[in-house]
Design brief:
The complex is a heterodimer of chains A (230) and B (167). Helix content of chain A is 50%, strand content 11%. Chain A has 230 residues and is an alpha+beta fold. With 167 residues, chain B is an all-alpha fold. Chains A and B meet through helix 2 and helix 9 of A and helix 2, strand 1, helix 5 and helix 6 of B.
Chain lengths: 230, 167
């Protein structure tokens, strides 16, 4: 190796040229990243006017109650979430009686999977909705909750049977995977809106997180009812 | 630049990877426009979710189309590096720089998939691996060219010193 080589390489492929190209590449990449929206997650923006989350990938999400109810409650639950089980087993029926059946609240369930492992159960929920038996399925899912594992196909079939679904048709639907895509997008819709824990509720656009005491639900709904008064 | 600096095997590998990248990016671009294609070609992961997310465009242009263009340009430059055209000398450096942009941007997109969009798209992962492979090959190519360039410079010095001694 000559002394001139040891001193410095000066040709086209010199260290300087490679470093300049590398720095230029980093700058271009940073510009692209900034133009793409940077690193911040999209803001959780859900307002009273935003009805988008009442649909699940363009299909109406399962809902119950009067279409003209002044308050809309949107639930985001995951079938592997024990807080969701606790809410649905302990509180959902009381809220139904007090607000849904009295026409004050329209209750929507935005089909959602907090964890990737729960995507199949969210897809199965779409299959139940196909037979207009979503709420029965939803209830059975939480009444037959298992702490130790993510629900799987056998669990869905059991819930469907208990909920009175046409089990062969449901099984065909689950096995076809035809709602897996809807489940993914429906989940993404919730996550884009800032839903990052379950259960979460939007009460006329205001977020209530977790398995809160029933009094908190009542207070939030009463506030929304008061605000909805003309 | 002499033909001795040409590394056709590396360039050929880069061109093959770019062709795969073009196909991959075309499929990803189709997801941006067609739900049916996404359902048919992406049975695992969240391709459509990723490719219709708010992050899937830059200044209104789908990222997949930008990626497609980048693979075409990088592939063309890799091919140019095997010829003796005006741009041939610079081509390996440009392949290195452009593929580095691609690698850095792919890292950013993978971050978005994992921590912001919460959906991973296998075709996007494939694209990230392709551009990373192209960049690694570009590094290997540059290293090789540096060695050859240094050897040629040394032989030029020797030739000059020999000729000066003889005169």
């Amino acid at each position: 190796m000559s002394k001139s080589k040891r001193k410095k390489q000066t040709g086209l492929f010199s260290s300087e040229n490679i470093v300049v190209m590398g720095v230029g590449a980093v700058i271009v990449a940073l510009v692209l990243i900034v133009l793409s929206g940077g690193f911040a997650p999209p803001a959780a923006v859900v307002t009273n006017d935003d009805r988008a989350l009442e649909s699940c990938n363009g299909k109406p999400c399962p809902s119950k109650g009067s279409a003209n109810a002044p308050v809309v409650v949107i639930e985001f639950s995951d079938y592997a979430c024990h807080n969701c089980r606790d809410f649905n087993v302990e509180k959902a029926s009381a809220l139904d009686r007090e607000y849904v059946e009295t026409g004050k609240v329209r209750y929507v369930s935005h089909i959602f999977a907090l964890w990737p492992e729960s995507q199949p159960s969210a897809a199965a929920a779409f299959c139940a909705q196909e037979q207009s038996k979503y709420w029965e399925f939803h209830q059975q899912a939480f009444f037959n909750f298992q702490e130790s594992s993510f629900p799987a196909r056998d669990d869905f079939l059991k819930w469907a049977q208990l909920a009175g679904l046409d089990t062969p048709a449901f099984q065909t639907c689950v096995d076809s995977g035809r709602y897996s895509y809807d489940a993914q997008v429906s989940t993404l819709e919730g996550k884009r809106a800032g839903i990052n824990t379950t259960p979460s509720f939007l009460i006329n656009g205001k977020v209530l997180q977790g398995n809160a005491p029933l009094s908190d639900f009542r207070a939030a709904i009463e506030t929304a009812l008061a605000e909805a008064q003309p | 630049m002499t033909r001795s600096l040409v590394a056709p095997r590396i360039a050929f590998a880069q061109i093959v990877l770019c062709v795969a990248g073009v196909v991959d990016a075309a499929i990803l671009a189709s997801f941006h426009y067609s739900e049916a294609t996404a359902e048919a070609l992406c049975t695992v992961g969240g391709c459509e979710a990723v490719n219709t997310s708010p992050y899937s465009t830059v200044a209104g242009i789908p990222i997949a189309l930008i990626g497609l263009g980048a693979y075409v340009v990088i592939g063309a430059l890799a091919f140019a590096s095997t010829r003796e055209w005006a741009i041939s000398d610079m081509a390996p450096l440009l392949v290195f720089g452009l593929s580095l942009v691609g690698v850095l941007y792919s890292i950013y997109l993978t971050y978005l998939e994992l921590f912001v969009i919460y959906a991973v798209c296998p075709w996007c992962v494939a694209s990230a691996l392709l551009i990373a492979a192209i960049w690694v090959l570009a590094l290997v190519d540059l290293r090789r060219r540096r060695r050859i360039e240094a050897a040629e410079a040394e032989s030029d010095v020797d030739t000059v010193s020999l000729s000066s001694q003889s005169s």
